[in-house]
Predict the structure.
Amino acid sequence: MSHAAAFPLAQAPTGAVAARATDLSKVYGQGETRVTALDSVSVEFRRGEFTAIMGPSGSGKSTLMHCLAGLDSVSSGSARIGDVELASLGDRQLTRLRRDRIGFVFQAFNLLPTLTALENITLPMDIAGRKPDKQWLDMVVDTVGLSGRLAHRPSQLSGGQQQRVAVARALAARPEIIFADEPTGNLDSRSGAELLGFLHESVRALRQTIVMVTHDPVAASYADRVIFLADGRIVDEMREPTADAVLDRMKRFDAKGRTS
């Protein structure tokens, strides 16, 4: 599948790592209720790259994202944003890092109904006492196609437009990395395709780094690479994915699960 660029191709920094997991394990419960969600996972996410994480239900894909984003602690191993080891941070430091260096886009839009689209976009920076870079903010708003909707409240926007606001909010603070957890889950196919196009363009035009958890092969085809998890381990990786190739790979996992 080809996704035409609406912006000039941006030159992303090469070799730099935005996030990294090293021998990362996450265990829930003890004894008979013990569940190993992640089993010694090592993976890097490079700056200026769009990565999709896929796997069967219960494979650990959302757990990996949550550990890398500092939303959940690790049982052993290491999770880093840039050169910062998350386990070394206190609660206040971790909150500051998530606010200043990480962007989040979730399936739920998480917009405040009393605020306009623009106020929702700038809210994290307002809370942090920082003024947005107007030139960057204008570029982000233009990229996600919200220029004519900034004065509207969420109730006056479609689902696709609300999710665009959520994406613009994540981009506006110029984070080092954006984590997106099933961002098209509440959208129809047309709105979902538009949103994925915006995410794709934010990597190309704005040099953003995105890690997206998804179960949808079509969504994964917008990424530069796909990482596949099964039973808490990385079992495969695909570069320049197509929807058909991803679907074929997922079918193999399903068949293996039925015969094991």
Observations:
- Strands lie at 17-28, 35-46, 50-54, 76-81, 84-85, 102-106, 177-181, 210-213, 225-230, 233-239.
- The chain has eight helices and ten strands.
